[in-house]
Write a structure and sequence with these properties.
Chain lengths: ~400, ~425
Amino acid sequence: MTTLTDPSKESFRLSQLVYDTRYRSITIQVVALIGFMAIFAWLISNTVANLQALGKDFNFGFLTVRAGYDINQSLIEYSSNSTHLRAAIVGLLNTLLVAVLGCILATIVGVIAGVLRLSKNWLTARLMGFYVESFRNIPVLLWIIAFFAVLTEATPAPNAFRGDDSAASMWLNETIAVTNRGTYVPMPVWHDGSVAVVLVFLASLVGIWAFGRYSKKRQEATGEILPNGWIKLGIFVLPTLAAYFLMGRPVGLDYPSLQGFNFQGGLHLRNSLIALWLALSFYTGAFIAENVRAGILAVSHGQTEAAYALGIRPSRTMRLVILPQALRVIIPPLISQYLNLTKNSSLAIAVGYMDLRSTLGGITLNQTGRELECMMLMMLIYLIVSLLISSAMNVYNKTVKLKER
Amino acid sequence: MSDLHAQTVAYVRDTMLPEAEPPLTERGAIKWLRENLLSGWVNAILTVVSLYLIYWVLAHIGPWFVNSIWVADSLDECRQIRDAVNNGEPSACFAVITERWQQLLYGFYPSHLYWRPNLAFVLLFVALAPILFDNLPRKLMWFSLLYPFIAFWLVWGGSIWMPVSVLAGLMIAIAAFGIMARFSSLIGVIAAFAAPVIWWLFLAAPVADAVHSLIPIGIETANSKQIGGFMISVIIGLAGIVLSLPIGVVLALGRQSDLFIVKTICIGFIEFIRGVPLITLLFTASLLLNYFLPPGTNFDIVLRVIIMVTLFASAYMAETIRGGLAALPKGQYEAADSLGLDYWKAQRLIIMPQALKISIPGIVNTFIGLFKDTTLVIFIGIFDMLGLTNSIRASTDWNGVYWELFIFVALVFWICCFSMSQYSQWLERKLQTEHR
């Protein structure tokens, strides 16, 4: 806001604070700041008065006290003798676990559904349309509860697997057992020498990256293109397989088996985790499918035709012309879907999955009676996670943004 | 030239051949099948997989649906009917819906008062019509403005003077703006905010009581504990969206403004709300709101939830409206400036009408999200439809009924959300053609 009047010679009058556009913005800001601080001070003074009336104080000391409750799924070592802080960390890790698993599956489901919805196949396109519309228009909480009900009500009890002509049978050649107490899958067992295999695997990943750089440089220098896909696949598979057999097959699988009243061995995935994971993935997948579809439709057909006119092959057209432009449209909403999925994972409460809200905001809160501290800490953690995800989005946006005037 | 041509061509047909039908594979159903289901082997595989999937689902739940039992008093009776009539084949027991649908829709609301929420629901569409479709007479807008008060009175009942006195606050706001805007539009805006707040906080309740003791007009009261089911979702969703709209506008303007402090406060608020899950805000409403308010304050849980949901929705609304503001060509701002309009006049007359119009589809989408999120209120002890499925299952009659209830709830939500999203798409198409 620039004014073309000469700077006034006369002395400063108070009314200028309101009527003079040079000062008015400062006045508004000062008033806003005072108002904001007044409301804040009012809230804090109320809180202090209320805490005093209840005889409570405000400190986070309870975090170092023994928690005294068990958590049925923990990625790090935890027992009821651990502190509340450790319980909160276990909860946070469980939240992140289901969020990461969910984001991966949701992306896969969403991309497949989004692409298939654009397919020329009438039936498949309709089917995917049905999937997207039914998942998008029904609350995620209902999906979580329904998936959980399927897993607990419609699956056989471990008892049904007993005997030769049992009512239920394990899947995939007797390796996966789906029961109403959870799903049991084979668990990898690491014997001596498995470290070497893992190291070789990591080294082959580095190798793929290095080869990619070399091949790009070579292409820029000579114009020749190597069969990149096959060579990369070879580097990915062969060294690790060779190391696996050379070290005498150090990585084995521990299969679940029915012993006593329940399955023993293998990895026990609880129904709560699976229900939450599947429901969040399919729900978010429906939204991602729409984003993917919009992204592909946003690239005009002229781009494909132009690429063909230049003699670029269809696969390479997709990779070099269509995808980079479609991704620019797809990625920002995709990441905000990841954000939604992470936030929706707090609905774990509906199926009893021990996430951050159930540990810190649930049992810890109820046991210690420190609502204020627990809720503030929990909100802060969720906020940090969200801000990390959205700052990743902003960084990406900056790199792919079209540069305009 | 033509002579030459005539000499070189020995025979030219001079009659038209009758039109022949295209080959059998190029017309009708076969052509459609070839093009849409079987073009290339990828498509053929997709078709087979899709057909198998549909067959699998239908084979599993088809008989269950076909054998549905609609009249029974309990799950046991359902099972007896199933064994007697359907030879023990799996059959759905939708009798639970025929018996309990009123509870799913109204919660524990007294059944002789069902006409009140029904009337409010019908009037809702009258109130919405002039907002949703712009070819209706504009005078209906006045009814839309009055509607929230009518609906509140119909659902909660009680003295009519309570909603009237709250409504009077709006009149006071308009009057204050009218008087003070003569001095400056900024002062007018401040007065329009301050005067009704003072009225609502200190004067509205005593005045309503006083008038009620003089002229008692009222209907039977229903308390918030009785309100539930689909009704509570509609109430919370609608209240959230209506109240969050003005706050969202203010936040969006604040976020776009050049004033650093105002901008920072707005960004901080929006990012905080958008960064935490709604469920933590709802727990704040049920656990913490008592800490933040003056000692001894205690008010209705539904009102508390509406406040939190409003804050939540207003952050999302602000982002939607910001999108609308950003989509507006810069020339509109510059044109308003060049006409010499001040900030508020420019916003009111030039910017907002256009920006809001652009963002209506986004607002509808926000509303769909909010409406679905109202199911979360079961975690703080309000019985919406999902919560009521639990309490229906808790009765001995219907212990063990899952799918029928879920299907009913899902269907109700699906119909609401799908029709809203269809409306928003229709609107998007309509707005698009207008801009081209």
